[in-house]
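Morning!

This is the sequence you dropped in the shared folder:
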Amino acid sequence: VGNASSQKEMNQSEKKIKELRERPFLSVIIPVYNGSHYLRETVASVLQQPCKDFELLLLDDGSTDTSLAICNDILAKKEDVQPFIRVFSQSNIGVSKTRNKGIDLAQGTVVIFMDQDDAMRSDFYTEEIKEKLLKLNGQGVDMIMNGMWNADDKLHAGTFASIEREVNKGVYPGNCQKLVWNFLYPFHANIFFRSLFFYGETPSPVRFFELPLDVESTFRHIAKYASRKILVSDEFSFSIRRNNNESVSATWDWLKVYPVKANAYYDILEWHRKYYPKDKKAIKDAQIWLLKKIDELIEGYSCDPHKEAMIADVLRTSSYAPEIKSLIRVFPIRSIVLRAYLFGKNYKYYLKLKRLSVLYEGIKWRVLQLVSSHKNPSVIIKGNLLKL
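The structure's back. Tokens below.
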């Protein structure tokens, strides 16, 4: 019986290894919405990777320009890369739902998200990098936080933003306080492993919240918190951020963004309560960050005399409205702006005090950045950034 059981386990193991070998190792997910301007160059930067063991998922989210036609044209004309490209189209559901669809469709052990106007360093994915990624995943690393390039719109000049200048290189536990809340780094510069999104074939709770706007900070938080281990390193850097006037964040209407962000941080609080109810500190931290976003909302609307009257309605109709009394009771000092507003006191006075505190912290951070820059100055890079 023992031999039969061992043989069965061996056969299952061999079957799993075979299935993994038949899958692409790397999945690159690009949500597409009216991105025709830069889309071909973005796709080209992925297809030029030296190691061909990858798939590129292009998910068109109901574009009204020629984006879908470009995706299909690339697929039709590039016969040699057809096995690596998968094109999907749908009516518009928003970037968060589209990314979640990409996660469910992706077959790779490693997952990378790219924006339609950014690029991947063309010699990033080599056999050597693949072997290192495979080894890291075997060691329990679920996420890699990398450095990245910030470039002009033509990718002709840029600077490298080293993550190792911000945080010491090394492996950190996923719920490390230093990374989870206080370190907001662009999520598109990170590398994720399938093990973060699935327990075997069962979906994990790590997904993008389905929001009307793209609030990446919420995903960054839950991904870092839920990871077993996080590697901080510049070695695996691949992302080139193309700064341009067509990016979504460049055209944000902040009076619409503030309520969405506050609701999103309430989603984080509820996420912790649902999936990690025993971690009381994480729940408390989530409440504090929700208060910060409510303060941002109050401050943002109060700056416009025509919009100030809307604050009460926004708070009343928010998803976190039932939580407000509890926040005031548990955090009497931290909720001082919110309390002052609700109880008809001069809340703008407390906003000024808070601004002074934020200004002080900002100056202190800037001084530290200048000292760091003097010791290790940023290098301006000119030429073809794709060939870095």
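Headline: The CA atoms of residues 41 and 250 lie 20 Å apart.

More detail when I'm at my desk.
O.
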